[in-house]
Amino acid sequence: MKFKISDYLYPFEIFKLFRFLNRSKGFSYQQLVEYQNEKLRSIVHHAYNHVPYYHELFNECGIKPGDIQTIEDLPAIPVLTKEIIRNRYNDLIADNADQFNPYENMTSGSTGSPLKFLQDKNVSIARFTFFWRIWKMAGYKPYMRWAQIDGMHIGSKENLWSFNRTLNSLQISSYYLHERNCKQILDKLSDFKPKIIRGYPMAIFMVSQFVNNSSYTVDYPVKSIITYSENLLPEYRFAIEKAFNCKVFDVFSQWEGVCLISECEKGELHQHMEFSVMEVLNADNKPAEMDEKGEITATSFYNYSMPFIRYKTGDLAIRENTSCSCDLNHMVVKKISGRKKDALFDTGGNLISFKGLQISNKDIYDTVEGLLQSQIVQASLDKVKVYLVVKNRSSSERIEKEFTKSIKSRLGDEMNIEFIYADSIPKRKNGKTPFVRNNLLNKV
Ligand SMILES: [Zn+2]
Q1: 240 and 205 Cβ atoms separated by less than 8 Å
Q2: How far is the CA of 119 from the centre of ligand 1 (A)?
Q3: Gene3D superfamilies from the xrefs (predicted)?
Q4: What is the mean pLDDT of residues 147-155?
């Protein structure tokens, strides 16, 4: 969720969309679907008339753009995979792409190779405005002081933060965050007194665990904490909410800008239906049942230079057929169960999504008190290595027991576990620290 400076340069467009989003917030589910149908017809017509790949695909499948009238008709169009984008890149570019002011964007490709794609100026505008809506839902008001702990501020060991006057924001580098400078960062936060803190869950968890494991107290009121870009593990949420005494709002999106899901004040996850159509598909690319896990597949309304229609994101989710008691009538997502790459092989060779320890309540959270950072690395089909950073070794036995229980219950009793204690866990260049690293994934 990084924004380029140019994202702020379209105040008129941003304001116009924001005004619409304020209005559509009151839409019924049916009105939201009608809005989606209209947006869908427009992108499908454009794709057929201007994008060689889709023109060819529709003809091959015997589809006319007029056949796709509603989101119910979408399954007629074959899905778009990362592999197709790599192989047919030039054919996916619209012949009138220039008029949408696109720029070349790229995913980090932390496993496998990066994915390159074109993205319209409007995607930046939409992303900025929808995030503004999400921040507002979390209590943000213009000019409020906020702090950000993520990979945006590059920083250095000596220069951990910078102040952005325009944004009224303290930007803290997650890359150089270490147990030894947590106090320095907490003192700086205490001077600045942010109302909202945003950032990578692991980084905020680390700072929170410093508070929870010491006599340090956060003596200023924080309205809310917004997390994104990494999995918010249950233990992270417990620790962060305890340390800062406020609610965590988790946000889920992808760099490709195709789907946006965020948590409301009731703690439910909502898909922002004005942003895109989201489907959850099973392994056969058929709609997953409610309560069944499937892959998030989305159709973006904002990218005309390179339309992504039924794009398979590689992220897994479970839908729920329910409504929420908050103001929003958007689709409710029961759970985002990690990314395909956040998965480990069990001893039978099956890929199992692994999203944190099985911590579902405060009591279990207490069993891992003293845990500062952790990472599970799959070394072979029958062995995982667990890297742990702990406050002191007296808590080791308790923590190892909890990890062993969680790992064996999901990956099999035969799984060998090696615990390795470290001072810190290496971060990626973008300052992120994934909880799961599967070294075998790229080899299968
Ligand atoms: Zn809600």
Answers
A1: yes
A2: 30
A3: N-terminal domain of ligase-like
A4: 84
